[in-house]
Amino acid sequence: MPKSKRNKQVTLSKTKKKGRDHKEAIVNAIKQAAESYNSIYVFSYENMRNLKFKEFREKLKSSSRFFLGSNKVMQVSLGRSAADEIRPGLHKVSKLLRGDAGLFCTNLQKEEVERLFNEYEEYDFARTGSSATEKVELKEGPLEQFSHEMEPYLRKQGMPVRLNKGVVELISDFVVCEEGKPLSPEASRILRLLGIKLATFRLRLIYRWSDGDFEFYIEGPDDSDVESA
């Protein structure tokens, strides 16, 4: 029987795409911040955790403002060349917005910013596909941290286990992950069950601009291009 043309599936989860108005709002917000705050920093991030970042941002919202998102939009906001920059030297900041990077606009003193960023570090469970920072190996024998109900689930994750008098037992040594290799979905689940956090959410300062005063925190292959721009 042919399908009825009236029988069409409608996706209720569809959301409206962020268009030109959204981009213009971000551009205007960054321009306003660049004119309002004394200093602008470029920072990079590793193992981003949105909830943790939100907490850090809330802590500093009275004196500062963070911007994350499209590097291209942030570059346009600051100006890509000396001809279209909104304040002297900001096109140099623009050139450093590459990869996992963001902007930090603030009235805090330089020493306070450096202290906050250097001290900030949050540990969390590593996600599937991320590189393991160390080798995790379980030795043959009882796994008393797991109840007997967990045995089928652990076996499903590839662990060589059995029940021995009601106790979950590894029948041979088992490598959960190898240092430097991507985590499989099974490995990330096992690490979470074991309570082992291999991901560290960090923010690293790259560059500081403050009324014509510039400073690099991390040297890169294109630093000379930025300085001569």
What does this structure look like?
The chain is α+β, with helices and mostly antiparallel strands and 229 residues long. The chain has two domains: 130 residues, Ribosomal protein L10, N-terminal RNA-binding domain (Alpha-Beta Plaits); 61 residues, Ribosomal protein L10, N-terminal fragment, domain II (Molybdopterin biosynthesis moea protein, domain 2), CATH 3.90.105. The strands form three sheets. Strands 1, 2, 3, 4, 10 and 11 form a six-stranded antiparallel sheet that branches. The chain has a three-stranded antiparallel sheet with strand order 6-8-7. α1 packs across α3. The radius of gyration is 25 Å and the shape is elongated. The protein starts with 19 loop residues before the first helix and ends with a helix.
Relevant terms:
single chain; 229 residues; alpha+beta; Alpha-Beta Plaits; Molybdopterin biosynthesis moea protein, domain 2; 2 domains; six-stranded antiparallel sheet; three-stranded antiparallel sheet; 8 helices; 11 strands; 32% helix; 24% strand; elongated; cytoplasm; Ribosome_Assembly_uL10
